[in-house]
Write a structure and sequence with these properties.
By secondary structure, the chain is mainly β. It is built from 2 helices and 27 strands. It starts with a strand and ends with a strand. It has 2 domains: 206 residues, Sandwich (Jelly Rolls), CATH 2.60.120; 127 residues. The strands form 6 sheets. Strands 1, 3, 4, 6, 11, 12, 13 and 15 form an 8-stranded antiparallel sheet that branches. The protein has a 7-stranded antiparallel sheet with strand order 2-5-14-7-8-9-10, with no helix packed on it. Strands 16, 19, 21, 22, 23 and 27 form a 6-stranded antiparallel sheet that branches.
Length: 357
């Protein structure tokens, strides 16, 4: 399946407090809220696209449950650390098996990055050079980790470098009896001495090694561009509630329970022209995301689709909706108008749509 989860943190505006289930599975606020910020982002968004990052309070964190039991994970994100530990390690990202951290990527007092077993100081493999991370500076991290009790691997790339900062093999990088991870965690910087670190994260993605697409590192750095609806698309068949038009309801930041589009007729489509990102290069993938709930007995299983030129994709059907809002993702690996890989302009001009199931 390759794609597991992604979050650019962009479509929530400023100072929005994340809550469990929307979009991350669990938001832990032991040390304080996890809030979006538009004041400190890794890259300025192009044109009129939204841009935000996530500020995770010291001791708090985000947890995402993964599909299946992947033995290899590919993760990338931007990170900005407010301070380094006086000694010991602060974890930045961890890979867990049902709540127990298998291993984590941590930073030490010298600004070196190191994989450790669990959340401990049991060091795994080699460390990056001292000074790899400095406080109050953005870094792009990309890593691939394979879990094993003796043959684990871990590689790490920083800021787009083609040379790995860490490339370790023959590792014991699990803390349970299972050579896989079922969760990925950001934050939870409670180890080390001195004040725990506030970290800011951006452009988070997670893949596994299965499937035919994006099943290995997608490059040594990547960013997420969030394109919100800007005008009505080819289909305007759902009923707007709240704001005056369909695309306006779909473009509210953060999504609003008062502004939405509704439908109860199978096969009925809505689609939206999105903001231009002026994409000059081909993207790694195109991802559609919808915030959906059902407000009757159901069941409802709508599908997300993209429209390129005059061709609609086959779409991706969601699981049966619940009576609470949740995000549903759909990955589109090829341009439906050409049946080949996306080009930059092709992805930029595509419409995103939804069809009632």
């Amino acid at each position: 399946m390759a794609y597991q989860f992604a979050d650019g943190f962009d479509n929530f505006g400023n100072t929005y407090s994340y809550t469990s289930g929307y979009p991350w599975t669990l938001v832990t606020t032991t040390g304080g809220a996890c809030n979006t910020t538009t004041a400190n982002v890794r890259f300025a968004a192009p044109g009129s696209l939204p841009g935000a990052a996530m500020v995770i309070a010291a001791g708090s964190g985000l947890t995402q449950n993964l599909s299946g039991t992947p033995s290899t994970l590919i993760v990338g994100f931007g990170v900005y650390v407010a301070n380094l530990p006086a000694s010991g390690y602060y974890p930045l990202v961890a890979f867990a098996d049902t709540g127990t951290a298998q291993c984590s990527l941590s930073v030490n007092a010298n600004g070196a990055l190191q994989f450790v077993r669990g959340y401990s100081t049991a060091l795994i493999g080699t460390a990056s050079a001292n000074g790899t991370i400095a406080p109050n500076t953005w870094y792009g991290l990309a890593m691939q980790v394979t879990f094993s009790g003796s043959a684990g691997t871990a590689s790490l790339y920083v800021n787009g470098s083609a040379t790995p900062a860490i490339n370790s093999i023959s590792l014991n990088n699990i803390a349970t009896a299972n050579a896989y991870a079922t969760q990925v965690k950001l934050g939870f910087t409670t180890l080390g001495t001195g004040s725990s670190a506030i970290i800011t994260c951006d452009d988070f993605y997670c893949f596994d090694s299965t499937g035919a697409f994006n099943n290995s590192l997608v490059g040594s750095d990547a960013r997420i561009l969030t394109k919100m609806p800007a005008s009505a698309g080819n289909y305007t068949n759902w009923t707007p509630n709240g704001l005056g038009s369909n695309f306006q309801n779909a473009a509210v930041e953060p999504p609003s329970t008062s502004d939405y589009n509704a439908n109860n007729t199978p096969g009925t489509k809505d689609s939206y022209i999105t903001q231009s990102a002026s994409l000059a290069v081909a993207p790694y993938l195109v991802l559609g995301r919808a915030s959906l709930e059902r407000d009757d007995a159901g069941p409802h299983t709508p599908g997300l689709f993209v429209r390129s030129g005059s061709t609609d994709s086959a779409g991706v059907t969601t699981p049966a909706l619940s009576s609470s809002y949740a995000f549903y993702d759909a990955v589109f690996t090829v341009d439906p108008s050409t049946s080949t890989a996306w080009t930059g302009p092709g992805a930029d001009n595509a419409q995103i749509g939804i069809i009632e199931g």
